Amino acid sequence: MKLRFLYIILCGTLSTGFSQNYEAKVDSLINLMTLQEKIGQTVMYSGHWDQTGPFVGADNGKYIREGNMGAMLNAMSVKGTRDLQKIAVEESRLGIPLLFGYDVIHGHRTIFPINLGLSASWDLKMVEESSRIAAEEASAEGIHWTFAPMIDVSREPRWGRISEGAGEDVFLNNEIGKAYVRGFQGDDLSQPNTVLACAKHYVAYGAAQAGRDYHTTNMGEGELRNVYLPPFKAAVDAGVETFMSAFNELNGVPTSGNKFTLRDILRDEWKFDGFVVSDYTSINEMIQHGFAKDSIDAARIGMNAGVDMDMVGHVYRLHLKTLVEEGKVSEAYINDACKRILLAKFKLGLFDDPYRYIDELREANTAYKPEFLAKAREIAAASSVLLQNNNKVLPLSKKTKSIAFIGPLVKDEADILGNWAAKGERGGKAVSVFEGVSEYLKANQILYAKGCDILNDDRSGFEEAISISQKADQIVLVMGENHHMSGEAASRTDLKIPGIQPELIKKIREANPNKNITLVLMNGRPLNLSDEVNLVDAILEVWFPGTMGGAATADLLFGTVNPSGKLTVTFPRNVGQVPIYYNMKNTGRPIPENNPKQDYKSNYIDVPNTPLFVFGHGLSYTKFRYSDLKLSSENLTFSSTIEASVKITNTGNIDGFEIVQLYIHDKVGSVTRPVKELKGFQKIFLKKGESKTVTFTISAEDLKFYNSDMIYGVEIGEFEIAIAPSSDFKFKHTFNLND
Ligand code: GLC
Question: For this structure, is 279 an active site residue?
Answer without folding.
Answer: yes
